[in-house]
Amino acid sequence: MSTQLGTLEELPTDYREAMDGARVSPLWPMMRNVLPHGQPNPVTKPAVWSFDKIRPLLLRAGELTPVERAERRVLVLNDPGRGKGAMQVTSSIYVGLQLLLPGEKAPAHKHTPSAARIVVEGEGAFTIVDGEKCAMERGDLILTPGGMWHDHGHGGTGPVIWLDALDLPLFVFLEGSYAEEGELQAPRNRPDASQVEYKQAGLVPSRNGGERPRYPLLRFPWKHTETALRSLAEHAGHGEPVELDYVNPETGDSCLPTLGFAAMMLRRGETARPPRRSSSGVFHAVEGAGRSTVNGESFSWKRGDTFSAPVFAKIEHTADGEAFLIRIHDAPLQQKLGFYEERA
Ligand SMILES: [Fe+2]
């Protein structure tokens, strides 16, 4: 196997000009960029985003730009590996923090990428997804899958801030990203499915041979998640991971086609050392504080903060006390493409 590949510079000038004229270029000088040996060479650089720094900027955006002029009032987390203005936090994951003020409405639209929200601060906001009104309480995960109408409203008194996670970079790469605008939706007069059809784990509505809905559960209340994690933690040995995946309750598959979500509880005095995964990840601190090391870089975080990890990152998490993180990742996409892997 050759390790030394030819360079562009060693080729004669007339040959290089002729290639330019024919709109071709040689693969061999660029081959290792796209096919490195052994594992990928990610552009993504790990980083932490402090909620304390972003919150005042968001509130100022609330004064500077009315929601009608923004449609969605969002500050996007820029991957330092891609630089200022990068619409991605890892190769395939977009994350932004969105502000909605009391009485404001973010108009209805639908788009090809899928999205999920994690509520960071405030009470009284709601998201309507294809007519289903989902209350937004702190820590809740709310899905707006690709192609489904969604608008946001706020009947409370203080600002509401949530984290948006989308598979937007993938759709942009595929030249498949677009949106359509619509009228604000009239919500169905009933609670969301987490309070009706899927209130009890292990039980789903009888379909009597009928089709199962593609996105049966749109809201995963944090209260349910935290209770489930605490039950798991009670019976998990020291050092055993306390982690739950957010899934489609009808199929057990990931709750969105390309993005996966997992809630993790870190217990006092424990260090979690997950395997090195081929998926990239974004971690959001729902509760507590701690420190994580990603490829040797150490990040302190607390409630509201977000940090990222590129593919195959070596990661360690240690909580100061008890802490809860939600991990957003792209393993479902990689599994569908047949290359997801974990290494020790
Ligand atoms: Fe949207």
Structure commentary:
The protein is of the alpha+beta class. The chain has one domain (38-177, 191-200, 218-343): Jelly Rolls (Sandwich), CATH 2.60.120.10. The chain is built from 7 helices and 23 strands. It has helices at residues 13-21, 31-34, 51-64, 67-70, 168-173, 222-234, 331-337; strands at 48-49, 74-76, 94-100, 105-111, 115-121, 125-129, 132-135, 141-144, 150-154, 160-166, 179-181, 219-220, 243-245, 260-266, 271-272, 276-277, 281-287, 289-294, 297-302, 306-309, 315-319, 323-329, 342-343. A 6-stranded antiparallel beta sheet has the order 1-20-17-22-14-13. The chain is globular and about 75 Å long. The two termini are 27 Å apart. It binds fe (ii) ion (FE2). Fe (ii) ion is lined by residues 109, 111, 115, 144, 150.
Considering DSSP H and I runs of 4 or more, what fraction of the residues is helical? 10-25%
Q: Major sheet: order of its strands?
A: 1-20-17-22-14-13
User: Which cofactor or ligand species appear?
Assistant: fe (ii) ion
Note the beta-strand portion.
25-35%
Give the CA-CA distance, first to last residue. 27 Å
Level-2 CATH architecture: Sandwich
The domain tally reads 1
**And the CATH topology?**
Jelly Rolls
Question: Uncertain segments of ≥5 residues (pLDDT<50)?
Answer: none
Beta strand count: 23
> In CATH, what is the homologous superfamily?
Jelly Rolls
**Average pLDDT taken over every residue:** 96
Radius of gyration: 22 Å
Write down the secondary-structure element order: HHEHHEEEEEEEEEHEEHEEEEEEEEEEHE
